[in-house]
Amino acid sequence: MRLTGTGHASMRIDTPAGSILCDPWVNPAYFASWFPFPDNSQLDWETLGDVDYLYVSHLHRDHFDAAHLKRFVTKKATVLLPEYPTSQLEDELRDLGFTSFIKTKSNEVHALDGGLNIMIQALISPTDGPIGDSSLWVEYDGVRVLNQNDARPTDLSIFAELGHVHAHLLQFSGAIWYPMVYELPESAKRAFGKQKRDRQFDRTIRYIDDLKASWVFPIAGPPCFLDDELWQFNDIFGDEGNIFPDQQWFADHYRELGRDNEVILLPGTVAELTADDCKVTHPVPDVREFFADKKPYLEQMRERKRPIIEAEKATWRHPEIDVLAELKRRIEPLLEESIYMAKGVGGPVRFDLVGYDGESVESIVVDFPGKEVRPYADEKVRYRFRTQRELIEHLIYIDEGDWVNSLFLSCRFSAARIGQYNEFIYAFFKCLTEERLQYAEGWYDEHERTTDAEDITLGDWVVQRRCPHLKADLTRFGMVDDGVLTCQLHGWKFDLASGKCLTSVGHKVRARKAGEPAESAS
């Protein structure tokens, strides 16, 4: 089996029974804020795109690059489709010209022609990707690969049960806006960033330890930020709180743990994989030297890409749009239908829209309890976002149904909040279509009504086995320290004495001191 790196989470998998192109991303994403690092635009995409199968893990735009898929990937390719609850991924691929689909069943092995076997595990909670994320397992002639990319499954055992995995490709770097955009003192922002960076690394190591693959490939990051306004987000300033470390940083820290089975996939790297060996050829003479020269590399890349960024910016302004009226028309019907997410948000969310002059501000409130969109009325709000008016105009103009997969991941905003993180805000703003809203509400309804009866013992505490957040198995991901439970899958914390979630609103955990009767559980 041959793995060819094609940038970020993308790769081409070649076997005698067929080839699979995974998640090709080349064009800038999220309001021209994210670019693949290293630059992959000069690869021979005409050849790379001539494949038998296409796998797009999910709809995040650093995985689903519509323009690139339309231009460079043969429409003769058969799409390996994850089993998602909505049809959006299939619909968008059909719109691009793809006609052949294998609609997989999650966690079931599918035998393709010539002895090639694949399995896709689909994750389908409202907080997984843009309503869905997935992992791809591939096997040919006894050689097995797991492309986990961004996905965060609670359990990798189903893959291990299919036989020893030889190559494990998984995310290690950040892919979020926290804490960089929050209006915090720099010292606090750096401390929170370091916590997140450490947690990312710990989670990656836990997945690696669970699967015990022969070779580990750190992929799916980091992006690079080439717009002058976002340049500070690149990890080139020695900031231990930067959440976007690169592959060499991971390799160095991984080796500090006494391990040496990592493989860095640059665009153009080729890894020839057998059951016993992995022979790697890189497109550069010295990988470590390449990363040591990262800053000048990014500076040169910034100049090459500047016209692309400026061209995109020129399309954002739509002064003819009445933002307040359009938001009322689009969002208020969804607020009326929302029960669980509206209750979870629990109050008004304020958007401060900065005008074209960079000074004037229009403040609009999405009032979840009041089920309306209205002008800000000088009331106290717990959640506030500040962004350029033109970005909201453009979201309205293109009828964007997922603000997470556009505005929020762009990092082109600032945020402030009083109290805890609230997942329901972001869940709602990725569900600005009828189909998505109905799915998410149904998922939360089922989630709310599901009683997790099984308990486990962690230290001096008896707690429910499944994390209230996304049902991670706390026998594997739970850690108790001084009466606080941390689920290490996503870093969520719970005060065991009260059961209160310390990380977000809601999600109370059932817990009691060991030796206390069950009926006294909080």
Automatic annotation (TrEMBL):
Record carries keyword Disulfide bond: no
InterPro entries named among the record's database cross-references: RibonucZ/Hydroxyglut_hydro, Rieske_2Fe-2S, Rieske_2Fe-2S_sf, SCP2_Rv3818
Boundaries of every Rieske domain copy: 462-502
Keywords: 2Fe-2S, Iron, Iron-sulfur, Metal-binding
Pfam family name, one: SCP2_Rv3818
Domain of life where this protein originates: Bacteria
The name this protein goes by in its record: MBL fold metallo-hydrolase
Gene source species: Planosporangium thailandense
